[in-house]
Structures are given as structure tokens and as C-alpha cells.
Amino acid sequence: MTFTHPSRTLTRLPLALGLCALGLAAAASPAAAAAPSAGRTAVLVGCPADTVCLYNDKDFNGPVFMVAAGDSFPTLHAFACPGCDSPKHGAGDGNFGDQMSAWVNNTSWTYCWYYDIDYRSYVGTMPAGQAVAWVGKRAQDEASSIRPC
Ligand SMILES: [Ca+2]
């Protein structure tokens, strides 16, 4: 596993923001908020193939940060999220750090997410092909880094 080099992170910024815009459209589709019976398939369809989607709001709503399969992000705070407000941490205002409330892992990779930047303070695992509509009161608005694990 190779970790993202800082210069690579910078070069990927426009792509990440572009994917963010696509994610906003995907999150607005009815499939993204499908009932459990339509369930897993519909939720996965709301997040592009080979992508991990981090949703700012529970039930797969709000701005979305998209991670291409295999990529690592040591700080989600480096990516602008205009208008985003982190109710727990001011450091997350206006960016994707401390925002995630739901996620979809539509890749074949297992991902882990962390409270702090640089993969510190492990919180949870995101198994391949799984989704969580709400990470819970304690864990929401806390994610600051993510990588395959
Ligand atoms: Ca949130």
C-alpha cells in the first residue's frame, strides 16, 4: 500500500471537487434514499462504481466526497465544501473534514476512517459493498482521514 504523497493530493484536488459535484447530483436522486427493501443495490447505485462516497448528512444526503478505489486521503480538511458547517468542530467549516454522517463503499476495497488527520484515532471499518445510513451521534461529523485498510 502506498500512501498519498502531498503533491499528489494537490494534483488530485480538481478531480475530487469534480467528483463532489457529481455526487451532489447523485445524492439528489430517489435511488440514494431508497427504502431498505430496495436497499443495498439502490444505495450502491447512488454512489458510482469503484468509489467510496462520504455523505455530509445521514440517509445519504448532502454534499458528497468521493474517493476513487484505492486512494487515501490523510486530511479531508484539504478539500473545500462551500457552505458546509461542522456542528462539532469549527475546523470543518467550509471543508469536508468533520462532516461525514453516512457512507457507501461501492468498491472491492475495505476502507477505514479516522477521527483525526494522518490516519490517527481509528473509528471504523467500511467493508466492500456495504453502506451505513448514519454512523451514529458520537461518530457523525468527525471523519478527518480515510484509507484502504
Ligand atoms: Ca454531517
Largest sheet: 4 strands, antiparallel
According to CATH, the fold-level topology is Gamma-B Crystallin, domain 1
Q: Could you say what the CATH architecture is?
A: Sandwich
Terminal CA distance: 9 Å
Rg on CA atoms, Å = 14 Å
Provide a count of the helices: 2
The helix fraction, in percent, is: 10-25%
* CATH hierarchy, class: Mainly Beta
Strand content range: 25-35%
Structural class estimated from helices and strands: alpha+beta
What number is the mean pLDDT?
80
What is the secondary structure topology, with strand pairs?
Layout: H1 6-28, H2 39-45, E1 51-57, E2 61-68, E3 102-106, E4 111-116, E5 120-126, E6 131-132, E7 145-148
Antiparallel strand pairs: 1-2, 1-3, 3-6, 4-5, 4-7
Describe this structure in words.
The protein contains 2 helices and 7 strands, in the order ααβββββββ. The protein has helices at 6-28, 39-45; strands spanning 51-57, 61-68, 102-106, 111-116, 120-126, 131-132, 145-148. The protein has a 4-stranded antiparallel sheet with strand order 2-1-3-6. Strands 5-4-7 form a 3-stranded antiparallel sheet, with no helix packed on it. β1 (51-57) and β2 (61-68) form a beta hairpin. The longest helix has 23 residues, at 6-28. The protein is globular and about 35 Å long. Residues 1-37 have low confidence and may be disordered. The structure holds calcium ion.
In short:
With 149 residues, this protein is an alpha+beta fold.
Question: Key features?
Answer:
149 residues, alpha+beta, Gamma-B Crystallin, domain 1, three-stranded antiparallel β-sheet, 2 helices, disordered N terminus, binds calcium ion
